[in-house]
Amino acid sequence: MGNNFKMIAKTMFGFEPILAKELMALGAMDVKEGTRNVSFVGDNGFMYKANLCLRTAIKILKPYKSFKIYSEEDLYKSIYALPWEDFMDVNDTLAVDATVHSDTFTHSKYISLKTKDAIVDRFRDKFGKRPDVDLDFPTLRLNIHIEKNTCNVSFDSSGQSLHKRGYKTATNIAPINEVLAAGMLLHSGWNGQSDFLDPMCGSGTILIEAAMIACNIPPNLNRKEFAFERWKDWDPDLFEKIEASVMKKIRDFHFTLKGYDTSPSAVHKAIDNVKNANLSEFIKIERQDFFESEKENERHLHMVFNPPYGERLEIDMPKFYKRIGDTLKQSYPGTQAWFITSNLEAVKNVGLRPSRKIKMYNGALESRLLKYEIYEGSKKGRSEGRS
């Protein structure tokens, strides 16, 4: 299908510019940044490609209809009037997700229920039978977005959130979301052109995303399914062509990717996840205490990590962050280090001035992604100069 249409890629706060850049690199048209979303134009093949390749998108929505509503009755009537039988059959299944930002409509669960009622009632009235609801793998997943009095109805082409890449079987208590990890890496300018270290790697998410960026591997290659595969216009041949063309762009990686963690169980989980992602040849994971480690060679090192927050570990935070700063200064010359934290007080103990601070959210926690440049020779020359 060569017909172009508008789509919306949803993302996390602070990742809009990165997602817009990703979309333009993939060949999207008319790319426009919104809040937690980026809109763009493409055809069906591009929709398949966007789902496969975008690292910082959570969902790809295909807008269908927009209308004004002033009451729940308006919503019901407007939804009922649409030709749902063009998109699904009476034996198919349905799921509705709703988001509301409105004084009139305040309850998203109620809105999704009302939408579902209108659709099944239309089927019952027309065919004497109604489709069922399936929240996990429906034939059609709809997204209802109400902003004040405007209701936008979209088809969800992704299904489960795109952060569910399909490689993670084992996670730690507080795993980092894959989209957040990819966004941090892209914000940090990581492009696979140097050695990489995650010194507190947990279940390995940052390392896996870093390897996929370095090798230009589409992040959602391991996914079991996308929602568009159940649509009536699903074109498996086109999807295979798209998949083959993005696989051709995979490239070699000529540096090292390493992860350290002090916990044996984290190391095991990370090794498992790396294996599931088929990246064992690129990523090495060791049981190692970052505070007792040092840089392995003279080459430039790119470091991105997510230090523990103290929720699952009893940590003296000020002391912990001071040790991060000391280890970087004393043992890691020639390193660009980035880490995310929601503990903005404790960070003051790092003893280094961040050259960049980027606001983002880790789940509900407002956080900062901080950049520290550790220069060559800072180990001896600088400390002597200061004493």
From TrEMBL:
<dbReference type="Pfam" id="PF22020">
    <property type="entry name" value="RlmL_1st"/>
</dbReference>
<protein>
    <submittedName>
        <fullName>THUMP domain-containing protein</fullName>
    </submittedName>
</protein>
<dbReference type="Pfam" id="PF01170">
    <property type="entry name" value="UPF0020"/>
</dbReference>
<dbReference type="InterPro" id="IPR054170">
    <property type="entry name" value="RlmL_1st"/>
</dbReference>
<dbReference type="InterPro" id="IPR000241">
    <property type="entry name" value="RlmKL-like_Mtase"/>
</dbReference>
<dbReference type="Pfam" id="PF02926">
    <property type="entry name" value="THUMP"/>
</dbReference>
<feature type="domain" description="THUMP">
    <location>
        <begin position="46"/>
        <end position="157"/>
    </location>
</feature>
<dbReference type="InterPro" id="IPR004114">
    <property type="entry name" value="THUMP_dom"/>
</dbReference>
<dbReference type="InterPro" id="IPR002052">
    <property type="entry name" value="DNA_methylase_N6_adenine_CS"/>
</dbReference>
<dbReference type="InterPro" id="IPR053943">
    <property type="entry name" value="RlmKL-like_Mtase_CS"/>
</dbReference>
<keyword id="KW-0489">Methyltransferase</keyword>
<keyword id="KW-0808">Transferase</keyword>
<dbReference type="InterPro" id="IPR029063">
    <property type="entry name" value="SAM-dependent_MTases_sf"/>
</dbReference>
<keyword id="KW-0694">RNA-binding</keyword>
